[in-house]
Design brief:
With 859 residues, the protein is of the alpha+beta class. Among the domains are: 296-302 and 447-646, no CATH class; 319-439, no CATH class; 784-858, no CATH class. Helices cover 41% and strands 15% of the residues. The protein contains 28 helices and 26 strands. The strands form eight sheets. Strands 14-11-23-24-5-25-26 form a seven-stranded mixed beta sheet, covered by helices on one side. The longest helix has 22 residues, at 653-674. The two termini are 66 Å apart.
Amino acid sequence: MSFKLLAIRPLEGCEENILNNLQVNKFYFFDDSYKQYKDHDFIIKKENYNELNPDFYYSKNENTESTLQSININAIVGKNGSGKSSIIEFLLRLLNNFFKGIDENNKLEKLICVEGIVGELYILQDEKLYKIYINFSINKYKEDAKNKKNEIREYINVLEIPQIISGKVLENDGFKNQSYKNEKYSVKNETKFKVDDYFFTMYVNYSLYGLDEKDFEDDGFIYDNRNKVNVSWLNKIFHKNDGYQTPVVIHPYRESAMIDVRREKELMKQRLSALIFTNEEYRTVIPQYSFDEIRFRLKAETALDHFLIYQFEKQEEDKATLDIFPINISKNIINEKIGFLSKWIDDNIVLVNYFNKKIKEITEGEKKTYDIKIYLYAAYAFLYDIEVRKDEDIDSEDINKPFLSYIIKNQFEHSKLDFLSEEIKKTSPFNKILEKTSNMSLETLISLIQLTISYDVFCKHLGYGNHEIYYKLNTDKFEYHLFWYCVVKTVKTIKYNTNRLFSESFEPKNILKNNKSDLQYLTKRYFVDIIRIDKSHITDKLRRSILLLELIKNPIKKTLQIDGEYKIFSSSSLIDYYRKIVNNGRSTKWNLQNWEFSRDIEELGDLINNTKAIYSRKNIELTDLLPPAIFDYDFYSSIKEKEKKIPLSKISSGQFQKLGLLSSIVYHLKNLDSIQKRANFNSYKQVLVVLDEIELYFHPEQQREFVNDLVRLLKLNKFKQIENINIFFITHSPFILSDIPSQNVLRLKQGKSLQDENGLNSFGANIHDLLADEFFLENGFMGEFATLKINEIFNRLKEINSKISKEQYDSLLREINLIGEIIIKQPLLDLLHNKFKDSLSDNELLVRYYENKIKELTK
């Protein structure tokens, strides 16, 4: 079994902005063991070619507990401007359109088709050779045509190329690209394709200047009405939390062409943590660091406090734009919504008062008017037939728009506002709502409603009574922090759920359309989905915390045989470990020197593994028992020849980049591997990982080790679904290239694919040979400034025809002695000495010159 990309080919009809410097109808081979079949539109395997053994990078025998069958590694090399980025961008466009085109269930409806791409991709999968052909060319109508609008042809075809080529095969129109070119209208092949029948692609690029969506404007944009901006196809494939359902993604995430470095550092740390705790082997991701200690603290705020403060800060920025009332508003609807809010306040008065108390502490009692007041005034005016429009706006077109939209836009006259204020005080439900929610925006109020629904569901699931106690700040209880983290996290993650029944029902505009029992029912269903079905990274931290709460309520014990001895293990040991951290309290000020709890990583690792062993029937993973998100923590590593341990947060940026990059790749592959095959979910057995100039931050030694470190980590992982991984390096590093045989290297020069003419194999080759052969260093390996400086010295020496002064001699001697290459330095020194010797006027000076030379040589 194997999987790898073999070749890619731009075709006639592809737009210039997509081609860049790539050649039309030219095959670009990633694997040199394949060739074009004569002048036909497909490729075949070369005969008698010295191809790589299937187990060159990985043998199945190296990890019998893993589903992984093969690792293939390829490279694309060439100077800047040679076409490397053009190849990869062409591949991304092709895959984007291919997966968008074959998506039958509208799971990829967010993807945007690229206009004007025509090409084909060849892949080897399950030992079969496939050709993926796409034609999204633009039919441009003439100015005098009736329909002047351009039409995008949409044609997709996938063909298996047989191993034996016969005349019957050549007669098949499927192998003739000409047969597609004359289709008048958009066509989609009738063959049923499934997205996860193919492969998942992860493209990693940390370049500051690449992947700016504005550079892809000619590919076609769509207009986003919500955000009032043009959106590129590129925006849609930057990595987001969608459960890896988009089959082609770019890392790291960028917004407006920028990477949030602080966010990326935090994510890298989280990904590394997941590996360090669950596998002892991953504690040495790179040889220089072996993490053996972890230091904890309880987070400065509880999840509840953080949520409430976040909601307050958010409402300071939000504008009043939400209309919870429909166009066909009626008094019955008004009464239903006011009744809902009034009862909700009564049922959750402790939370409402707690929120108001927190806001009062933040604002120091300063009053501010939020949109909830405007909505209540407008609803009251409508319910009691009080005219609130300004006299001059009575005949305005706005009068036909939704009632509250008009109110928000035009506000009230002060006199009518004062009148309504006095009237509302006389009406119990309105007055109560206004009094208790005056510190909230409508968005905040709805978020709190979501919070209380989640709260009720968790209380029932865990069997907690006297619910109000959990609104108090019981900071001495591990359960309290864990409980509120679960409640808050459920509210945050429900919007990511791929089941629209959940995500849409809890959107702010829809939440008041349901009564409390409906919302509780939906939340409970979502809760059950998290526990029993959803094993993706989206709910990873939430599931982890729920499991710990369940272990607190119902601890388990089991006798296990360890090294011939029977021992009793209990889940309470892990809970006690986490509980001690909470019992130590939290610091008032965060700093690296003030951790409350320090332990050996192995201790926690053993507790996690033992708990997993006694809980085996429940189908949990080691990652489900990692430290919950209520803690901050840092890893410490012992360094050779250093007594003081180094925290992960203090290692150099280059070392952190390598640690983070390697752990992120493995982390994402583990997450991808965790997604079960379900009716509404894509899961993959084949993965393509493209690493674009990832050596940007690396010292040569780190570059030299990178391929081996990555392969080593992949070998350690126990995959459950992924079978084949194809890794592509787009690189300028001879150290990385020396780990990749020439058979797997595409060499580019000015958009053209070049054959290896001198027969040098890049695998294990000398670095200088690689620089000359694979990276096209035609002018030597010396810096250009040094080259020009040496030429300048030589020319100055040549031009000396008369006597040379002692000052000139000393100046030139100093510059020549700076040259490190002896083959260049010695001839220049000889020339200088000869020129100076000829300048000496008498024998006495000549004797002194040679005496000085002897002294120099005997030093």
